[in-house]
Design brief:
The protein is 43% helix and 24% strand. The chain is α+β, with helices and mostly antiparallel strands. The strands form two sheets. A three-stranded antiparallel β-sheet has the order 2-3-4, with helices on one face. It has a two-stranded antiparallel sheet with strand order 1-5. Helix 2 crosses helix 3.
């Protein structure tokens, strides 16, 4: 599972989101799907749960959603906005 890094602050609206990495002095703009993914991670949701929700909201296959979520998570991890950890606790995605 992933968690949002401690130095990351974000805000979300209908147009997407803005992410500020205060540790590295960087700012990122997210589209609505990216903002949903980051917000869901902040709630403790697992990758599969996030992909299922995106598939439902955007009427796409779960396979496509899983691939897209994985690609986005990889990008977030490369920018040190999220970190991987081991915890199988349930999330409060909804």
């Amino acid at each position: 599972m992933y968690a949002v890094s401690a130095g990351v602050r974000s805000t979300r609206n209908e147009d997407g989101g803005i992410v500020l990495d205060i540790d590295h002095g960087q700012m990122f703009r997210l589209n609505p799907v990216g903002a949903l993914i980051l917000e869901s991670l902040g709630k403790g949701c697992a990758e599969a749960e996030i992909a299922k929700e995106i598939a439902h909201q955007y009427s796409i296959s779960e396979e496509t959603a899983v691939a897209d979520v994985r690609e986005f998570l990889k990008s977030l991890e490369e920018h040190k906005l999220i970190r991987m950890y081991q915890n199988e606790s349930s999330c409060s995605c909804r």
